Every structure is written in structure tokens, then in C-alpha cells.
Amino acid sequence: MVANYSLYSLPATVLVAYYPYFYKSFLVTKQTGNWNNINPRENVNKAERQMTQEAWRKAKRCEAAHQNGLETFPIFATAVIAANVTGVPTLYLNALSTSYVVSRIIYNSIYINNESAKVANFRSLVWAASMGISFSLYILAAKRSSKR
């Protein structure tokens, strides 16, 4: 019997989604020596003049990667839960949930570190693949549910 690790992918995905936020905080603090915790969502915008343009653009991309991670998490999380509840085989659960986490790590890395249009297109393909993984879990769950 294979152990089911798919539910561990949920907190892992949260960590992956928040990594860009903490990296952005590091960039702003390193460049400005300051972090305004009263209104932290405005830190990057307010720090633009104090940061190098390269660091500021990277911090903005960190914000976008973080936001995308938050937007896609509920889709993935409900897919994992649905697949678990309906009894999708563990092998599929583990493979797909691990693939999702890896795809999100790749997505973040590309988003944060890239300024090329060609590489940005690849980032979109990685995003589409991660969404495909979530939808695969939904489809597997639906098939299992209809067999009951």
C-alpha cells in the first residue's frame, strides 16, 4: 500500500505561494533599510525611488507571483480534497499533487527572475500545466464519484 502524501502538498503550496512575498520584503528592506508594517502592501510602490530599478521590478514581480499563488491555491486545494474524498488512487494523488508543487516552484522562479518576453511565454505554459493538474484531479474525482 502506497502512503498518501497529497494532503501535504496543501501546506507546501501555501509556502510556495508565500515565498515571493517574503522575498519581496527582503528586497525592499535590503534596498531601503525600512519596512513599513502599518501599510505593507504599499511598501514596494513607496520604495521605488529608493531602490534600483532592477530590484524594484523584481519586487513587483514577486508581488505578482505571490498574488497568482493565492489565486490558484483554492482551485488546487479543492481539487486535492475532492480527489481524496472520492477515493482517487493514491498513486495519482501523489504524482499530481507533487507535480503541482514543482510546477509552482518553477513558475515562481521564472516570474521573479525573468524580464524576457520569450521566457514569460514559457511561464504561461507552466501556469497552464499547473491548472491542468488541478483539472485532472477534478476529472479523476468526478469519474470516481460517478462510479459510486
UniProtKB/TrEMBL annotation:
Subcellular location: Membrane
Keyword Membrane among record annotations: yes
PANTHER family per UniProt: BLR7753 PROTEIN, INNER MEMBRANE PROTEIN
Transmembrane is among the record's keywords: yes
Key words, A-Z: Membrane, Transmembrane, Transmembrane helix
Protein's recorded name: Membrane-associated proteins in eicosanoid and glutathione metabolism
CC per GO annotation: membrane
Chain ranges passing through the membrane: 124-142
InterPro entries assigned to the protein according to its UniProt record, in alphabetical order: MAPEG-like_dom_sf, Membr-assoc_MAPEG
Highest taxon listed in the record's lineage: Eukaryota
Pfam families, A to Z: MAPEG
